[in-house]
Amino acid sequence: MRKINLLFFVLLLMAGCAPQPYKATNKAYRQQAKTLAADLRNQPSPVPVDSLNQPNWWAGTVNFNLRKPNFVIIHHTAQNSCDQTLKTFTVTRTQVSAHYVICRDGVIHHMLNDYLRAWHGGLSKWGNMTDINSASIGIELDNNGNEPFAPMQVRSLLVLLDTLKHRYNIPTANFIGHGDIAPRRKVDPSVYFPWQSLAEKGFGLWYDTTAVSLPASFETLTALRIVGYNVQDSTGAVEAFRRKFMPGDSTKGAQMSEAERKVLYSIMKQSQ
Known about the structure:
Blueprint: H1 2-17, H2 23-41, E1 71-76, H3 82-88, E2 100-102, E3 108-110, E4 136-141, H4 151-168, E5 175-177, H5 178-181, H6 195-200, H7 220-227, H8 234-245, H9 258-271
Parallel strand pairs: 1-4, 1-5, 2-4
Antiparallel strand pairs: 2-3
């Protein structure tokens, strides 16, 4: 028993002495979180209105909680290693971050509290929402964009998505990609990403055109808009949709084939 206790003590000591590569930035994280917490504790300031006397007391509501995310945005890092991405997200000059980074070996780095606003969406739009960062969780997959996603990485992603879906009651349709919310500007996750496999598990939509018959009134851009795409750049929207749902299709431009329009109609019906 004495030997076991001694071994346990040595292991604890070794753990305490293990290198902490992000010690400095973790300290900065805690300080910034502390500052934000102090802001939350501050009593709201009165809003002065000319000619009206302000009461000398405050009525704070007791009915509130933290805002919760309603979307998950999936990215690929476009970098060559997890270490490279972690460093990118821990220097202020990059001005980019995500809540989670998943390495090729399946290790998940939870870099930011889910209730805080990461800077991962950039200039983007989905439906009528233009501030994607304020309503979403960003997940970065360690992948350079030119390679298949590692099986262990996808497995870890599915576990994480299941956790997030149940924790925040995120709708199935609200698991989308960076390329969806920023057509033309972004293409991640790439054509190698297994959207169909995710949809089969309840994370995102997929199509079934078995019994689809296009109505005469069907309009491509209207359907894309209903799904959520920004159709201001019609070619970009079509290509983003095609890249996600028909990654093997080499067709370019804004014109959709009959088969593609049936896929779009199927997704549109699920989005309504």
